[in-house]
Design brief:
Blueprint lengths: L2 H13 L3 E5 L1 H5 L13 H4 L5 H6 L1 H20 L4 H11 L5 E4 L5 H4 L7 E3 L2 E8 L5 E3 H11 L12 E5 L8 H13 L2 E5 L10 H8 L3 E5 L12 E3 L3 H6 L9
Parallel strand pairs: 1-2, 1-7, 2-3, 7-8, 8-9
Antiparallel strand pairs: 4-5, 4-6
Helix pairs in contact: 9-10
C-alpha cells in the first residue's frame, strides 16, 4: 500500500470517536476460505445455492444442503484467523474500533479475540446449528456425524422442528435483531471502514452508504474496485492483512 494511503487511514482512525468496521468474504479468503461468487473459485461456481423455500419444502433439498456442508466443512473448520483478522482484533482491543459488522459466517472475528458482543453477524454463523421453530442451539459435529452415517436429517429435540446451520440461506429473511443493531451502530459511527466486501449483496451492502449519508467518513479497503468507490473518502486497493498491519496505531487515550 502506498505510504500516503497508510498515513491517511491511520489519521482517520486517530481522529475518529466511533469507528465501525464492515467485513466481507475478502478478509477470510486469506484464511483459505473460498468466497461464494468469484468465477472459477467461488462456492457457487460448482453448485448454485439452494433457496430457503426449497430447503423448507423438500427433504431431498435438505439432504443436499447437508451433503454440501459435509464437503465444505473441513475447509471451514481448519481455517484460522489471518493477519487481517488479528489486526482488526487489535484495533478493537486498543479502543480504535467499537463494532464489527460482518457478512461472513465463519466466526473468525470471534476466534481472533473480538468479544462476541462487538460482532454483528448479518448472515449468521456456520459453526453451530439452530432449530428454525424454537431457536434451540445445537452443536454442529454430532449432527454432521449422524447425517454422514445414514443421511438422517436433524430435528429439534424440544419441538421436532427443522434444524439447520445458523446461517442465513439464499432467500431466507435477514435477521431483524442483527439488522437493527447494525443500523444503529452505523448511524452512531463517524468513521466506517468496509474491508474485503464487493458491496454487491444487499441489504447488507447498504450500510456503508448509510454511514456516508449520515456524515461519517467512508473508507473502502478491497483488492478490486467496488461500486461505492466514488462515494468513499479513501479507497485502498491492496491486500488486507499487510495494509492493516502497516498502521502502527497505539492504544487510544481515554
Amino acid at each position: 500500500m502506498p505510504q500516503n494511503s497508510s498515513n491517511q487511514l491511520a489519521e482517520l482512525l486517530s481522529q475518529s470517536h466511533n469507528t465501525v468496521i464492515f467485513t466481507g468474504a475478502g478478509i477470510s479468503t486469506e484464511s483459505g476460505i473460498p468466497d461464494f461468487r468469484s468465477p472459477g473459485t467461488g462456492i457457487w461456481t460448482e453448485n448454485q445455492p439452494i433457496d430457503f423455500s426449497e430447503f423448507m419444502a423438500s427433504e431431498e433439498a435438505r439432504k443436499e444442503t447437508w451433503r454440501r456442508k459435509l464437503k465444505i466443512d473441513p475447509v471451514m473448520s481448519a481455517a484460522e484467523p489471518n493477519a487481517g483478522h488479528m489486526a482488526i482484533a487489535q484495533l478493537v482491543q486498543v479502543g480504535h474500533v467499537s463494532t464489527i459488522i460482518t457478512q461472513n459466517i465463519d466466526g473468525l472475528h470471534q476466534t481472533s479475540g473480538v468479544p462476541e458482543v462487538q460482532v454483528i453477524e448479518l448472515h449468521g454463523n456456520t459453526t453451530y446449528c439452530v432449530c428454525l421453530d424454537c431457536g434451540t442451539r445445537y452443536e454442529l459435529q454430532p449432527i454432521m456425524q449422524a447425517f454422514e452415517a445414514d443421511e438422517s436429517l436433524p430435528l429439534c429435540q424440544d419441538c421436532n422442528g427443522i434444524v439447520k446451520t445458523a446461517t442465513i440461506s439464499f432467500g431466507q429473511p435477514m435477521p431483524i435483531a442483527e439488522m437493527e443493531r447494525a443500523k444503529e451502530a452505523t448511524l452512531q459511527s463517524d468513521l466506517f471502514i468496509s474491508i474485503g466486501s464487493s458491496l454487491v449483496v444487499y441489504p447488507a451492502a447498504g450500510f456503508p452508504l448509510l454511514a456516508k449519508q449520515n456524515n461519517a467518513k467512508l473508507v473502502i479497503l478491497n483488492r478490486e474496485p467496488t461500486q461505492l468507490d466514488a462515494e468513499a473518502d479513501l479507497v485502498i486497493h491492496d491486500e488486507i492483512g499487510p495494509t492493516l498491519n502497516n498502521l502502527n496505531l497505539g492504544a487510544r487515550a481515554n
